[in-house]
Amino acid sequence: MATVYIPSQWRDLTGAVDRLELPGRNLREIASGLESRFPGIAERLVEGEAIAAGLAASIDGAIASRGMYSPVEPTSEIHFLPAIGGG
Amino acid sequence: MTPKSEQKKFKVIGTRPIRHDGADKVTGRAVYGADLRLSGLVHGKILRSPHAHARVKSIDTSAAEKLPGVLAVATRADMPDLKDKIADLGEGSVNLAHLGANVLAHDKVYYKGHAVAAVAAANPHVAEEAVKLIKVDYEVLPAVTWVMDAMKDDAPLLHSDVFTKSMGKKSSKPSNVPTHIHFEKGNIEEGFKAADVIVQREFKTASVHQGYIEPHVSTALWNQDGHVTVWTATQGAFTARAQTAELLQIPVSQVTVVPCEIGGGFGGKIAVYLEPVAAMLSRKCGRPVKMVMTREDVFEGTGPTPGSFMRVKLGATKDGKLVAGEAWLAYDAGAFPSGVIGPGAMCVFSCYELPHAKVDGYDVVNNKPKTQAYRAPGATQAAFACETVIDELAEKLKIDPIEFRLKNAAKEGTRRVDGPVYPRVGLVETLEAAKSSPHWKSKLEGKYRGRGIASGYWFNIGLKSSVAANVNNDGTVSLIEGSTDIGGTRTSIAMQFAETLGITAEAVHPRVGDTDSVGYTDLTGGSRTTFATGLAAHEVALDIQRQMTERAAILWECEASQVQVEDGVYCHKDKKFTFAELAGQLGHTGGPVVGRATVSPEGASNGFGTHMVDVEVDPDTAKVTILRYTAIQDAGRAIHPSYVEGQMQGGAVQGIGWALNEEYVYNDQGRMENASYLDYRMPTALDVPAIETIIVEVPNPAHPYGVRGVGETPIIAPPAAIANAIYAATGVRMTELPMSPPRLWAAMTKGKNT
Amino acid sequence: MVRKTHVATTINGEPVEFLCEARQSLLEVLRETVGLTGSKEGCNNGNCGACTVLLDGQPVDSCLVLAVEVDGAQITTIEGLAKDSHLHPIQQCFLEDAALQCGICTPGFIMSAKALLDRNPNPSEHAIRFQLAGNLCRCTGYDKIIRAVQDSAKRMAEQTK
Q1: How far apart are CA A79 and CA B57, in angstroms?
Q2: What does the alpha-carbon distance between residue B472 and residue B346 come to, in Å, rounded to a whole number?
Q3: Which of B57, B649, B720, C125 could form a cystine bridge with B137, CB 3.0-4.6 A?
Q4: Which residue of C has its CA nearest to B642?
Q5: How are strands ordered across the β-sheet holding A19-22?
Q6: Subunits with at least 3 CB pairs below 8 A relative to chain B?
Q7: H or E stretch at B218
Q8: C141 CB near a chain B CB, below 8 Å?
Q9: What's the predicted TM-score (pTM) here?
């Protein structure tokens, strides 16, 4: 099961939980799993079909490039970060 | 994947061919935005706000419209209502109402230089005269330009519809602070308790502009068939198209963007300014409208990088191990949300293994132009703070500054404060290269001379790229790619294509396509182009190779699987064809061979750099002379070493300017006082020595040739390296940028900073 | 209707005549009227050198010269450097030494370098940096530009042998 790290700014919804293991083949399934554990969290993570504006997902150290359909492995480590661009 | 770089010697990669667009660029033939000629072309000019903060009560364009020669006038009244619309523009979502209001002010102006109205006339001087005839009724409001002042409870509120967002959570009271980022790792109370030495410092930096020599320029033609063509200087034709279409609320299919050759960007030519205005004027007068910014407009009306206030605290044990770090960062966003506090907060401790850390970052709106990226956005400010504190810690512990960094350097497996774990990265290699460099080994003697060193990190991004390739009968290949070429990337992309296919770089004819002729490609920026579009070029070369293999099989009457390709030569038993020979046979084996590829690689390619500098400080004038400078960087794999060196040198000198002289000087009415190249003092050839470069190659595991982005990292370390050198030279620890003579002199004559 | 002035001048060795308004700079007329867009506008007030041309052999910021002033003068622009199908040695060295990235400042630098090397065929690095201090570049950090000018000096010396 993938390990999902909860950003410190979402801990108001998760209590002391800063990481948890969730099943899922892609981010959509992971988000679904997060929402059933911590209702309200999906609102911060998802907007419609896409990752929320200003947010990015890092899967195993690389920024995910397929949005909510980005594949997740059973050993993946997932972080949610501010989206960055570049100059 | 095992990078090819580990497998064999390259034929093209690592060589230094002359760039494909070279002859045009040295003869003045290359067509930049302002060089464009179209029949019936007219000129547009913009009226800008003289006030830093004001309500726009009314705009009276009647006198301007009556001036002979004026063909059209545009104001906010001509823009569609964009309230509450968000668009995904490739690098993340954008609030269209804010973008639109930045292009032409709606209810308020938020900075001196904010565009308010525009005029088109056949004669550009007439357009300028007409602009002066537009009467705007302003209700002037109090302005705030210093980031900390804008955060105060009694600061003038810029927007009543901006609330503090904390990673998706929204506050309920309108604020000048649109974003609060918070990261935590471990337990910093415990961390600092374990520290033998703790250093905390506060820092200030000023607004700084990218300074590209070419002012913004766009030409738009809103044709009688309803199609809009925009020729513009942009870092991303597709993102310019998306922004323009969204702001005009017309379908993207109705807009074509043709990227002209571009005279520098560095992050400042991603957001649109003139494109939608030129389009609106063109719609009104039926002629193509060209708009060029003046240099003053560029300083006052585009997007400098944030000024900032930062507090950084680091603790280490007596044998030099970092145990805890805390950072508090407030960055300008300028007139509209959002700025670059996210990457700043993620980067601040990114060079180090730090078991306990806490970072708070705030984005703050104020009455300055909306900030944009300037190379590694947000990282330079953060590195100035962190690397200065690291230097001070090393000094207190009597540990050599390179050794201190090596002891704590981020490496594969290090967990960053914001969470992700690094894959294979090259910081340690840059530090080792620094240690063994001729510069570091050289003796620096003399009064008021000192040496400083600093490291920096930038993520580099991935995003999407598309390419197409057509094989010509003579064995040359035209390669159409979608990445606007600001620094020679069409050649680095062509070189990767050539390497994969086994042909020469000269046999490739790369071209940058417009939005109708090439597949979607994200912007040229974020150090992504040689990485991602190069990856696409590699894939299209494989596609071409597959098809060529099939053609050889047809000619040799065998199966395609029986054809081998070795170094670009197609073989089967004792028969062989070079690529050029096979290309000559395409006509009768099925027709042209056309390849295509589109990629969306995961970011990041992780770029680390270490810079060192020797300075001499004049004790009477506090002028800082750069005696010697070395930039070291992990490029993964240097495709064209001259252009990698060029990125390192260019970024280093921009950083030198940022460190020593460049700043927006604001008066107490919030007006910029130095909006010209005379007083906004960028480095000249006389201000800097040769910039030595050392390219380190720790191949990126996520690219077939090991490429890491290189464009942004070099701007991060210079201010800190120079500050550390100034300390070594004078005993004065500077914590404010720029370290210009008046500031440094004041600090020197006050005695040592404690 | 603004009264225009007739100007007769020589540009890149060829006689050129044009009509211009008193308020037009030489840069504007070169680009908009004569059609030579190789000289660039970076600042329009003489601070960046992107508009450098040679006026009677002297390097000038053409944005600071009024078009009406050049009647009877000899002007050389970037377009006048290459001979037939051959680049000028300075142009060739800029390419070989990768002394350009975005290229917008390149014509100005090449003109300033030509003015320098025409006068001083063997300049020191400091002399080169001093002479080119009026040309701003934001992309290269100047390093490769200086090397290209040094290489140009060598190549031009070889060619005159």
Answers
A1: 47
A2: 47
A3: B57
A4: C98
A5: A19-22, A2-5, A77-82, A55-59, A62-63
A6: A, C
A7: strand B217-222
A8: yes
A9: 0.97
pLDDT band of B167, cuts 50, 70, 90 = confident
Complex ipTM value: 0.98
What does the pLDDT read at residue A49? Answer: 86
Alpha carbon of residue B41 to chain centroid:
32
Handedness of CA C150, C152, C158, C161 (dihedral sign): negative
Give the model's confidence band at B90: pLDDT under 50 very low, under 70 low, under 90 confident, else very high. Answer: low
What is the arithmetic mean of pLDDT over B299-305? 98
- The DSSP call for residue B53 is S
Look at residue B335 and give its three-state secondary structure.
coil
CA B505 to chain centre: 27
Could you tell me if B401 and B394 are in contact, meaning their C-beta atoms sit under 8 angstroms apart? yes
Handedness of CA A32, A35, A36, A40 (dihedral sign): negative
Q: Closest Cα partner for B267 from B303, B219, B308? A: B303
- Tell me the nearest-neighbour CA distance from C71 into chain B, angstroms: 22
Asked whether B474 and B496 are in contact (CB, 8 A), the reply is no
Q: Which of B487, B475, B562, B470 is nearest to B525 (CA)?
A: B487
Q: How many residues does this entry show for chain B?
A: 754
> Does the distance separating the beta carbons of A8 and B183 come in below 8 Å?
yes
Which subunits sit against C, judged by 3+ Cβ pairs under 8 A? B
Which residues from B are below 8 Å from A55, CB to CB? 167-168
Amino acid, res. B416: R
Rounded Cα distance between B179 and C140, Å, is 35
Kindly tell me the sign of the dihedral angle through the C-alpha atoms of B204, B206, B212, B213.
negative
- pLDDT, averaged across chain B: 95
Residues 6+ apart with CB under 8 A from B63: B133, B134, B135
The sheet carrying B624-634 orders its strands as B449-458, B607-617, B624-634, B691-696
Alpha carbon of residue A4 to chain centroid: 7
Q: Where are the beta strands (DSSP E) in B652-747?
A: 691-696
Give B92-146 pLDDT, tens digit per residue.
Answer: 677 899 999 999 999 999 999 999 999 999 999 999 999 999 999 999 999 999 9
For B243-265, write each residue's pLDDT tens digit.
999 999 999 999 999 999 999 99
CA C107 to chain B, closest CA, distance in angstroms equals 6
Residues of B in contact with C48 (CB under 8 A): 213, 295, 677
Judge whether B380 and B716 are in contact, CB under 8 Å: yes
**Closest CB to B92 among A5, A8, A54:** A54
CB neighbours (10 Å) of residue A1? 14
The one-letter code for the residue type at B29 is R
Nearest to B563 by CA among B553, B551, B554, B577: B553
Beta strands in B255-355 (DSSP E): 255-259, 289-292, 308-316, 322-334
* Beta-strand pair B624-634/B691-696: parallel
Taken in order B371, B377, B378, B380, the sign of the CA dihedral is negative
For chains A and B, what is the number of CB pairs under 8 angstroms? 134
Chain B residues within an 8 Å CB radius of A52 = 168
CA distances from B751 to B538, B541, B754, C100 (A): 58, 63, 9, 44
Question: Chain C window 30-69: which residues touch B at a Cβ cutoff of 8 Å?
Answer: 31, 35-45, 47-48, 50
Cross-chain Cβ contact A61/B420 below 8 Å = yes
How far apart CA B261 and CA B98 sit, in angstroms, is 28
Q: Are C39 and C78 spatial neighbours (Cβ–Cβ below 8 Å)?
A: yes
Q: Which residues of B touch A60 (CB under 8 A)?
A: 421
